[in-house]
Amino acid sequence: MSITDRISPPLQVSQWLNSPQPVTLDGLRGRVVVLHTFQMLCPGCVSHGLPQALRIHRLFPPDQVAVIGLHTVFEHHDVMSPEALRVFLDEYRIPFPVGVDQADPASPAPLTMQSYGLRGTPSVVVFDRCGCVRLNHFGQIDDLQLGAVIGQLLAEAPAQPPVDAGDKAANQTDASACAGGACAVHA
Fold first, then answer.
1. Among residues of the chain, what percentage have pLDDT more than 70?
2. How many C-beta atoms surround the C-beta of residue 24 within 10 A?
3. Residue 99: how many CB atoms within 10 A of its CB?
4. Are 134 and 161 spatial neighbours (Cβ–Cβ below 8 Å)?
5. Each residue of 18-31: pLDDT tens digit?
6. Number of domains composing the chain
């Protein structure tokens, strides 16, 4: 888990599902943003991460908290196509916008996953109203702990945003959460 006070790099998404137009972090400024990264074939994502994202989506007012998903595929690329994702989202009744993380031809890890230093799935990244990463967590996170972070950010007065994302290392997690229910990236 890590916390930064830097404006985040943009999401690098090849296509958006459940949204009539592309979703940007800039477009969500003024709201707390909860980004859940997942893979369709990740057991921890299906059993914990996505149900948690659904609970947040249903609990908090959409003008205060935006929930977005990021399908960040780093393994089994051939079977996790955007078409399969569309069916998956329909079957699991995922209503919030979900982006497909842009593939990197030089790496199994997609581009947003790399720029945020994500170690695998499920991961959750929480942005404050100014677009700064305030939580970057790999693996399962307790609902109460995540709800406390969201509540704290909702209670904060909006501050002036920092200038830019700075170095990639600031967005790295120091988590040792590489445990059951999480799919780690293997370089």
1. 80
2. 12
3. 24
4. no
5. 999 999 999 999 99
6. 1
∠48-137-145 over CA atoms, to 5°? 70
In a domain, 50, yes or no: yes
Closest CA to 11 of 68, 64, 65, 58: 68
Local confidence band at 8 (pLDDT 50, 70, 90 cut-offs): confident
Query: Where does the pLDDT of residue 122 fall: very low under 50, low under 70, confident under 90, or very high at 90 and above?
Result: very high
**Taking a C-beta distance cutoff of 8 angstroms, is the pair 13, 45 a contact?**
no
Q: For all residues of the chain together, what is the average pLDDT? A: 85
Q: Which amino acid is at 33?
A: V
One-letter amino acid for residue 118 of the chain: L
Give CA–CA dist 166/184, Å, rounded.
Answer: 25
Confidence band for 17, pLDDT divided at 50, 70 and 90:
very high
Sole residue written with tokens 């600031």: 170
Could you list the residue range(s) of the whole structural domain that residue 103 is in? Answer: 13-184
Q: What is the CATH number of the domain that holds 142?
A: 3.40.30.10
Spatial contact of 44 and 181, defined as CB atoms under 8 Å apart: yes
Question: Is the Cα dihedral 133, 180, 114, 10 positive or negative?
Answer: negative
Q: Which residues does 153 contact at the CB level (< 8 Å), separation at least 6?
A: 32, 126, 128, 129, 134
- The pTM of this model reads 0.82
